[in-house]
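hey can u check if this looks right to u? its 110 residues, i copy pasted from the old doc so theres a chance i mangled smth
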Amino acid sequence: ALLAVINLVVAWRSDTAYRFWWLAAGVAMTVYALASYGYFVPQMLSFQSGGEGWTASQIETFVTWWTGLNYVRMTVGAIGWLCALRALSLSGTGRRAARLAGVSAPVPQD
């Protein structure tokens, strides 16, 4: 979670052409990490440590909610990865175009 927040701060301060995609990836992955450590991990730990006393109805409700929300969490994570891949693909565009033209591209100042 800390790396996701650091990445978000660095993306916010940058002025690169791919900043939008980098920020989108940072936001998505920060939400993903906060959901993981704020809800999913504590819920699973409580189920593992005290679930033996739960009724079948409580277990069914828990599993239904947990898996349903997990689909949302995984979708947010996939969107984050796709945005990060887009930002990464755009990060080399200037250097690639300059290399094809035979000109040395300046190193970006982030």
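The chain has a mean pLDDT of 87.
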